[in-house]
Amino acid sequence: MRHMSKLTTRWVRGTVAAAAIVPLLALALVPMTGGGVAAASAKPFKVCMGTGGQGLDWQTGQGQVLQAIAHKEGWSSVVLSNNNSASTTVSNVQVFIQDGCNAVVEFNPSAPGDVPAMSAKLGAAKIPVITFDVGEPGAYFVGIDNLKAGIAGGQMLGKIIKSKWGCNLDLIIASHAHGAGTVDTQRTGGMITGVLRECPNIPQSKIVNDEGSGQVSVALPAGRNVLAAHPTAKRIAVVGINDSTVTGTIEAAEQLGRASGIIGWGQDGSLITGANVDPHLLGSVFYFLEGYAEATLPLLKEIAAGHAPPVQDNTHNNPEVLLQPCPVTAAQARHVPGYSARLHKLLQSPPGTTEYALFCPNK
Amino acid sequence: MAEKTLPELAQGTLTPDGPMMARPVRPAGTASSLWPSRSRPEGTATGTVIVGAWGALVFGSALFRSDFLSRQTLLAVTFTMAIVGVLSVGQGLVAMSGAILDLSVPTALILPSWAVASLLGQGINIFLVIFAALAVGGAWGLFNALIIVFGKINPIIVTLGTNFAGAAMLNILFENAQTPMSSGLAKWGQGKFLGLPNIFWPMLLIIALVGYFVPRSRVGRHMIAVGGSSQAARARGISLRKTRFAVFVASGTLSGVAALLFTASDLYFIPNDGSNFLLPTLATIIVAGIALSGGAGNLWLIFLSVGFLSTVTTALAFYGLSDVWQQVPPGAILMIAVSIDGYRRMRSRR
To answer: Is the pLDDT of residue B232 over 80?
Structure first.
């Protein structure tokens, strides 16, 4: 009897624990976006995508746009999240191969080292690959012109520095994300180049680098530390790999009571729209990242028709598609719809329409 | 039962709810006693070492750059201390109770933060928002405790698992969140009181109060006893279940407090941001000398530990070290602290 009671207690405990764990596991296993489009009997062209992750809205948006394109074209599609992880990227590629994908699109900006491993596997399986933003020999390159975007944003900021302070500033903080490799070098470095084109006499000693990892929560303490180490700097400009690192650094100045002397210009346009824009973020450069998949449509159509064009992999600065950056001031950005509205309009537009054409005020 | 034997209870080897080996019992009041004795408070040696290291760091940095001793440095350090300090108190409670570590800190921080940002965005009253943050944090701790207690699973495994699942849940719930700039919380988060950040004071108060009450309250003593030897504590009639529940709910509620400080000072965040706080929290309790084997530690030392570690990262910016290399010294300090903790445990087993 006692034995039975013990067993019952154990069973109850086990059931309670399982009941608690199962919903969480179920949540964890829910795919980031809906799976593939139902396969037709004629085995339609299947396009597969590994998105960067789920941490940023445009990352999921890229998958949504690709699936919408596939749906309109009558293709089958599979979208998996790479979760910003090298091992997940490679295992997703294995899934794509086993699933019989006819073309694969990958976005891996935070882990450039993933690209060769991914590319080698898909190359061996003779599946055409399109990479977003990180180039790879043998893979079609589709992406923003990061250097052009960086320089354009830097020049816009440089013009403000020139008119506001006569190019006489105390400090430029460059908030990097070194993990992004060449993307960081071109974008953040490009911004410095752009500022120096407008104000060539700013000495290198006034440029300080810190690591913002592309996140406000990392850029914020790093920014506080840099600002503390330059306590007399009164005229400060901030550049960075994206809006998050620039905004984080600006927030740091606000916390240290130095907001009146800081200005920044971001990249990617993620924090320049809406009602909660930091007043010291004077502008940004839109890439309309969520709409990248639209730019792949002509290429995917050719691949689907069985005559894939020669690979343009950007190794010799000859990309398949180079998207145009769209620098905007904060005032102009007020008239650009937010992410969700942009995505909605893009998905309702005729195939091949780009967000640059729809929304950029400085075409 | 007389409380005077609690130090003896605390001498066991911790394996939460699992098979255990009792440690040889030492008489209370010896140098290695885990109970704060009247002659020498718990962690005096550790505290002295941290104060010495912190002082040396400040002195050395001031010699290198005289402007290190500025109000800007003080503000940078105290802002950095606040959130990590509060999270570390919760982590310290978990460690002292013998549950080793709570690896679900990232979710425990971001889940209530998301609740705070969402409610503020809808214009909900700040007092309701504060209540919601504490309730969501506490509920997360309760959820962990339910699985640990009824599933009889090692807490470190449970919190690792719930953190993964929680991260997935957060990614489904939202992609990015913003504290409205016009909200009272955002304004309070930028403000100062007595020259120091507003968000610093709740951290100081929590460390002071929890550090005071843990060794002096019944529930706190039970927690230390369970952490020292769950078998011996059970033999003394202390409920392991109640203790586990109390510790994890308290830790979760503290995460709710940390979430309020986080959303007040970091107005834009994404689900993954919580992961930036796990390692600093672990480093803080390890440097504070809180035994990962449970049953020992002085929560007041968290103030010194988080202050020292926050000063290290700020000081590195003064030394002009490349931003890539700035990650190295905090990592080295963590490794040294873990080695010291391991050495202490090895010595206590002899």
So the answer is: yes
Q: What is the pLDDT of residues A76-119, one digit of tens each?
A: 999 998 887 788 888 999 999 999 999 999 986 555 556 677 87
State pTM to two decimals: 0.82
Report ipTM for this prediction. 0.85
Q: How far apart are the first and last CA of chain A?
A: 82
pLDDT averaged over every residue in chain A: 85
Among A236, A209, A223, A216, CA closest to B72: A223
| CB contacts, 8 Å: B322 with chain A | 209
Instruction: Set out the domains of chain A in order of their start, with CATH numbers.
Output: 46-145+289-324+337-359 (3.40.50.2300), 146-286 (3.40.50.2300)
Query: Chain B, 157-216: which have a CB under 8 Å from a chain A CB?
Result: 161-162, 164-166, 168-169, 171-172, 175-176, 178, 180-181, 190, 192, 197
Angle, helices B278-287 vs B105-121, to 10°: value is 130
Out of A42-56, A181-195, B157-171, least confident range: A42-56
Report how far Cα B50 is from the mean position of its chain's Cα atoms.
Answer: 17
Q: Of A219, A329, A324, nearest to A282 (Cα)? A: A329
CB proximity list for A74: less than 8 A, separation 6 or greater = A40, A44
Task: Give the 3-state DSSP-derived string for A164-222, with helices as H, strands as E and coil as C.
Answer: HHCCCCCEEEEEECHHHCHHHHHHHHHHHHHHHHHCCCCCHHHEEEEECCCCHHHHHHH
Report residue B217 as tokens: 């309250």
B79, B151, B180 member nearest A224 (Cβ): B79
Residues B64-112: pLDDT tens digits?
A: 999 999 999 999 999 999 999 999 999 999 999 999 899 999 999 999 9
Domains in chain B, ordered, with CATH? 80-325 (1.10.3470)
